[in-house]
Design brief:
The chain is an alpha/beta fold. Helix content is 42%, strand content 18%.
């Protein structure tokens, strides 16, 4: 299915159906509906209708015309919820989908009913000495690359192209600028404003959004609890699907 939200064509799918409130499923950065289909399948087994969309610039949805940050993605998601008439739905969100959910829930507690945050992003990673050295080196290299002699001798411009995370290097144009805006917004201050009943499901070996982030969220979100899937990574729902399904089922029923 396709709709247009805030000037952008959005692809989405609906799976299952019942008299229960539908559940919105939000995928992670660079992913699509296909990535969260296992979650949708389990929700359908539990008797819920699962609704999932491709975020703009990902999957089958159009990219925005200008760089977006979390507020813009949140506004689009809120408009999508309004268009489908599913205000008050539960939401299951993974990684980047967690950023959008945290932003929305902290601003409007009645937009969602229950929140299920799976390896959710939103808290800025702890800064290490190595991080500051890399940042300083990058900024220095950028200045030196403007000097032709230095640039030719040390191939600075060429090295700068390989700087940044794997996710960043895989992007170009508007989505690269969007990625920078997204990851630089720290949502930690918004966590105490979330009033919804919240379940955190996390992989103990998650290296993209480490477990300390989940523990921080549990401490800061008033009505929340944390379930850890031992041995699972950032895609904990896929790494140990039976365990994930058992946790989700217990919470939803």
């Amino acid at each position: 299915m396709q709709t247009e939200i805030n000037g952008v064509k959005i692809y989405y799918e609906r799976q299952g159906g019942s008299d229960k409130k539908p559940v919105l499923v939000l995928h992670g950065w660079g992913a699509s509906v296909d990535a969260v289909r296992p979650i949708m399948n389990q929700l359908e087994k539990l008797g819920y209708e699962a609704i999932a969309l491709d975020f703009p610039g990902m999957g089958k949805s159009e990219a925005p015309n200008e760089p977006w940050g979390v507020p813009e993605y949140a506004a689009m998601t809120e408009a999508f919820i309004k268009e489908l008439g599913i205000r008050g739905c539960d939401v299951v969100c993974h990684s980047f989908g967690g950023r959008v959910t945290i932003y929305l829930a902290s601003h409007d507690p009645k937009l969602f009913s229950r929140l299920i945050l799976v390896d959710a992003a939103g808290i800025r990673k702890k800064r290490t000495l190595a991080y500051y050295i890399r940042t300083w080196s990058y900024k220095l290299g950028k200045k030196l690359s403007r000097i032709a002699l230095f640039d030719r001798l040390f191939k600075i411009s060429e090295r700068q192209k390989n700087a940044g995370s794997e996710d960043y290097r895989a992007l170009s144009g508007v989505m690269r600028a969007t990625f920078v805006k997204v990851v630089n917004l720290d949502l930690d201050p918004l966590l105490p404003d979330i009033q919804n009943e919240t379940l955190l499901i996390w992989g103990s070996l998650d290296d993209a959004t480490p477990l300390y982030m989940a523990q921080r969220m549990e401490k800061r979100i008033k009505n929340s609890g944390l379930a850890v899937i031992e041995g699972a990574g950032h895609f904990s729902y896929a790494d140990n699907y039976p365990h994930f399904c058992a946790i989700l089922s217990a919470f939803m029923q």
